[in-house]
């Protein structure tokens, strides 16, 4: 087979065969297919799409490009969660300990930032000492005790996705239903969890801008998971504005700590309760989402979820004193408020722009080998629906230097829309596909 012919076939809209997909994925993982050819194929897939059979083939080929974990010797049942990516999405940091605290072992491999959206591993690495790269043995031990592990995708797990994910991040090839579905589900299948909840986001701060696209992505992923014998539910949630108030790695860890200690933003906590209830029901701990929710609320209010989070961070060599004193997490030296240009109601916040602004401040990557500044980011002071007077702070910019603030201020101001009348209220959870 020749890669150039496969690229041309997809460019011209032909469905790739199972054998072609397998050959490409193996060749790319083995380093025989160069990044530039894989990027060209990814772009052809973005533009031409893939049918269900191709998407399932791509998922299985990526999953089988490395080890397929079986965790049943360390825990009879494990759960996992994945988000399709959004701005300010620190859900894993709150949800995973909550669910682990009610007795469901969480075995989670997470990603780094992708495009305008942050990544859980980058966030956790703002905790000094935190080790996201675990050996397979360490991963398995952590599933047993403390019953919660959030690790970077190991080199042995879906290695083809690891390479492709980083390549897509810097080649504008993220926004594609088949590529996202295959990326997410290959990792989930390879990581071995029995019950998986997917947080499929839509809106300006997500890769899927419309509800229809989010629904299609959700159905595709649920079907792939079920076909592979896993329990999978997808929650379609809104990213019409960032989740919570903080965007940026250390800032989001602070917000997650607040949520685990009982003072988190209501949208973040609500989403975690909805996602967590699905996991509790799938795992058979409770029969219906209401009683599942009560169990999780108790885990949060009793401090059990917070203790689980501390135990996970300690187990992965993170400095837990920075969690007890979050002001010791990386702090940006320059903090400047951006003022509302006029009075009115905030009717829209363009999350995608905010995500790119955080990248421009140094909080995300432009090239895949870039290092990031964990301290920088944004803290929203007014969210959609808020009434502001002219001059009120809309957002606080946390930056390494004043010139960075100056470089992003205009773009940031344009991300806010202010009108005389209040906007309709936005549902956080649109639907659940079970
Ligand atoms: N999350 C992933 O793991 N992969 C994607 O492609 C997008 C979000």
From TrEMBL:
Top-level taxon in the UniProt lineage: Bacteria
GO biological process: pyrimidine nucleobase metabolic process; pyrimidine nucleoside metabolic process
Quaternary structure annotation from Swiss-Prot or TrEMBL: Homodimer.
Family membership noted in the UniProt record: Belongs to the thymidine/pyrimidine-nucleoside phosphorylase family.
Boundaries of every Pyrimidine nucleoside phosphorylase C-terminal domain copy: 345-419
Keyword Glycosyltransferase: yes
Any GO molecular function: thymidine phosphorylase activity
Cross-referenced InterPro entries: Glycosyl_Trfase_fam3 (IPR000312), Glycosyl_Trfase_fam3_N_dom (IPR017459), Glycosyl_Trfase_fam3_N_dom_sf (IPR036320), Nuc_phospho_transferase (IPR035902), PYNP-like_C_sf (IPR036566), PYNP_C (IPR013102), Pyrmidine_PPas_bac/euk (IPR018090), Thymidine/pyrmidine_PPase (IPR000053)
Name of the protein: Pyrimidine-nucleoside phosphorylase
GO cellular component: cytosol
Gene3D superfamilies listed in its UniProt record: Nucleoside phosphorylase/phosphoribosyltransferase catalytic domain (3.40.1030.10), Pyrimidine nucleoside phosphorylase-like, C-terminal domain (3.90.1170.30), Transferase, Pyrimidine Nucleoside Phosphorylase, Chain C (1.20.970.10)
Keyword Ubl conjugation assigned: no
SUPFAM superfamilies noted in UniProt: Nucleoside phosphorylase/phosphoribosyltransferase catalytic domain, Nucleoside phosphorylase/phosphoribosyltransferase N-terminal domain, Pyrimidine nucleoside phosphorylase C-terminal domain
Keywords: Glycosyltransferase, Transferase
Organism encoding this protein: Chloroflexus aggregans (strain MD-66 / DSM 9485)
